[in-house]
Specification:
Length: 189
């Protein structure tokens, strides 16, 4: 997280401010943080990954969303916009006024130089408090090919698999879908 642009703000105040804002902000425990702009590579990777997931999940019980769907981790008082989130079954929203959901099955973050430490550290710690979350993927957009795939096993432990070659395929068990790294990185490498 960067430097907060507002401190001492209630969740309700944040949601009202965000509803009227031209830019997106993350909220954590009373503080609001402006989200940074992204690179062309970051946007290509997000678009490629979302497109692959949309096609593979079409007609199934799971649906991907791009970074306009806010996720609430109420226990940690975190409101954030993952690059991509996948929901299986009914989308559980916090209310009918704001586009905020609480039950993602999978979350995908595309790493940038400014967010990679946060996405790997504190943010993942917060995400692990989402009971329904089964898979967390970190896709590198900092000049190298790399995907870190954390999946929750039946004992509730998070297991890491890493992928570093364009010809590798990763399997996301919770949504019964495979992705090939060359499709994720199409037009990037």
């Amino acid at each position: 997280m960067g430097i907060p642009s507002h401190k001492g703000v209630s969740i309700e105040e944040y949601l009202e401010l965000e509803a009227n804002s031209d830019t997106k902000h993350e909220y954590y425990d009373g503080e609001i943080f402006a989200m940074a702009g992204e690179t062309i590579e970051h946007n290509k990777i997000c678009g490629n990954t979302y497109g692959e997931l949309y096609l593979k999940l079409k007609g199934k019980n799971c649906r991907p969303y791009v970074n306009d769907l806010r996720i609430a981790v109420k226990r940690d008082k975190l409101y954030t916009y993952p690059d991509i989130s996948v929901f299986c079954g009914e989308l559980q929203k916090t209310d009918d006024k704001f586009d905020t959901a609480t039950n993602p099955t999978a979350i995908i973050e595309v790493l940038s130089d400014s967010t990679k430490d946060y996405d790997r550290g504190s943010k993942f710690k917060f995400y692990r408090n989402i009971d329904q979350l089964q898979d967390y993927l970190l896709i590198d957009a900092t000049g190298i090919v790399g995907v870190e795939h954390f999946s929750k096993n039946q004992n509730g432990l998070w297991v890491l698999k890493e992928y570093k070659e364009l010809e590798e395929m990763l399997y996301i068990q919770s949504i019964d879908t495979s992705l090939v790294l060359s499709d994720i990185y199409a037009g990037v490498y």
